[in-house]
Design brief:
4-stranded antiparallel beta sheet; alpha+beta; 4 helices
Length: about 170
C-alpha cells in the first residue's frame, strides 16, 4: 500500500475522476453512485487532516489503506497522473453543487449576500419560507461569487430567514 501522503494525492485525483464519471454516467445512463465523489472527498479530507495534525500517528496507515480501497478503479489512473503520465495538466477538483440548498440568515455574509461560487451558470428558484413564495427573477441576482437578494424588505442581518434554492432543469 502507498504511504499516507501518496494516498492523499490518489484520493484527491480519484475524487475528480469520479466526478467526471458521475457526470458522464448521468449523461449516458451508466450506473455510477452519484455520492462516490463526495465520499472520496470527505474521506480523503479526513486523512489529510489526520496526516497534517500528526503524521506519526500509529493508525494512520490503516486510515490511508481505507481511503486507498475507496479509490478502487481510479487508483491506477491517479497513480499515472501523479507519476507524470497525465498529459501535463494537473486536475483541479470541480466543485459539485447538489440541490436543493437549504440556507438560513446565518449563511449570509451581508444583509443580502449569500456566497456560493458553485451556483453561477445555473437557472435557480429561491423559495423564502417566511414569505411563503418564490422570489421573482427581479428580486435576486446571481453572480460568479454568489446570490444577492434585491427584494426591498429582505435583511438577513435583522430577520430570521429560511430559504431553499432549487435548480431549474430544462
Amino acid at each position: 500500500m502507498p504511504t499516507p501522503a501518496v494516498t492523499i494525492q490518489i484520493g484527491q485525483i480519484s475524487t475528480v475522476l469520479a466526478s467526471a464519471d458521475v457526470a458522464k454516467g448521468n449523461l449516458f445512463g451508466k450506473r455510477i453512485d452519484p455520492q462516490l465523489p463526495v465520499i472520496l472527498y470527505v474521506e480523503t479530507d479526513i486523512l489529510n487532516a489526520i496526516y497534517t495534525a500528526d503524521s506519526t500517528w500509529e493508525d494512520l496507515q490503516e486510515v490511508a489503506d481505507y481511503v486507498y480501497a475507496l479509490c478502487g478503479r481510479y487508483t491506477a489512473k491517479a497513480l499515472n497522473i501523479i507519476n507524470g503520465g497525465g498529459g501535463g495538466v494537473s486536475p483541479s477538483p470541480t466543485p459539485i453543487q447538489y440541490y436543493p440548498i437549504y440556507i438560513t440568515q446565518a449563511n449570509f455574509t451581508t444583509s443580502t449576500f449569500y456566497p456560493n461560487t458553485n451556483i453561477f451558470g445555473n437557472n435557480i428558484l429561491i423559495f423564502v419560507n417566511e414569505y411563503n413564495r418564490y422570489l421573482l427573477a427581479s428580486e435576486f441576482t446571481v453572480s460568479s461569487t454568489g446570490i444577492t437578494i434585491t427584494e426591498a424588505n429582505f435583511n438577513a442581518s435583522v430577520n430570521d430567514y429560511n430559504l431553499v434554492i432549487e435548480k431549474v432543469y430544462s
